[in-house]
Amino acid sequence: MLTRGTPHAPRAGGFTLIEVLIAIAILAFGLLGLAGLQSKMQLAEMEAYQRTQAILLVTDMVERLSANRPDAASYATATALGTGDAQPASCTAIAFGVDRDKCEWSNALKGAAEQSDDTNVGAMLNARGCVTEIQALNATPGACAAGIYQVTVTWQGLNETAAPAFTCPGDVAENTLRSVTSYVAVGTPGCA
Predict the structure, then answer these.
(1) What is the dihedral of CA 78, 82, 85, 86, to 10 degrees?
(2) Within 10 A of 191 (CB to CB), how many other CB atoms are there?
(3) Nearest CA to 81 among 179, 172, 169?
(4) Using CA atoms, how far apart are residues 106 and 84, in angstroms rounded to an integer?
(5) pLDDT tens digits, residue range 60-102?
(6) Contacts of 90 (CB under 8 A, 6+ apart)
(7) Which of 49, 79, 132, 189 has the maximal Cβ count within 10 Å?
């Protein structure tokens, strides 16, 4: 009896190896994308940390200015405090008042609150701060105008964005510069 045999199909040798190589390539692209995403997240986290520090430093000066309202005009700065200024590293020799507040704020802008191996690391990159008098206090009866002061902190960001509207004297408005600003109004309680 004659049996008819079925023809044997050629084996698909190496087909699974190609599948594995394609899977590895897809996985590699996915991991590269994930590494890029993590890098962007770390930059965003650092930017958020710096902005938080800037807000705290602006709030610090606003509170100092508000606590010393009679001398509010003396807080106005012709040059920026912080990175690159001539304030001493220790403010203990300076009498309490406006000059001591400026010195302490300058050191805070320089990151003196946190140190690592005698290096200040507690603030933003190239942090600078300034107080600008927008409107002078006028307690003259009949005129009565509150003093208005702008407190600004600028620093060097890590990503490019639009240049800030408010900067301190001497800052170069560029796409990596960041700033936070707040206003303080010093009223005239004797005016009616």
Answers:
(1) 110
(2) 14
(3) 169
(4) 10
(5) 999 999 999 889 999 999 999 988 888 888 899 999 999 999 9
(6) none
(7) 132
SS3 string of the chain?
CCCCCCCCCCCCCCHHHHHHHHHHHHHHHHHHHHHHHHHHHHHHHHHHHHHHHHHHHHHHHHHHHHHCHHHHHHHCCCCCEECCCCCCCCCCCCCCCHHHHHHHHHHHHCCCCCEECCEECCCCCCCEEEEEEEECCECCCCCCECEEEEEEEEEECCCCCCCCCCCCCCCCCCCCEEEEEEEEEECCCCCC
Compute the CA torsion angle 33, 38, 41, 42 (nearest 10 deg). -140
| Nearest residue to 154 via CA among 119, 134, 187, 130 | 130
Q: Which two tokens stand for residue 82?
A: 């912080």
Distance of alpha carbon 25 from alpha carbon 163, whole angstroms: 41
pLDDT given at position 143: 76
Instruction: Quote the CA–CA distance of 174 and 109 in Å, as a whole number.
Output: 20
Are the beta carbons of 154 and 171 closer than 8 angstroms? Answer: yes
- pTM of the predicted model, to two decimals? 0.78
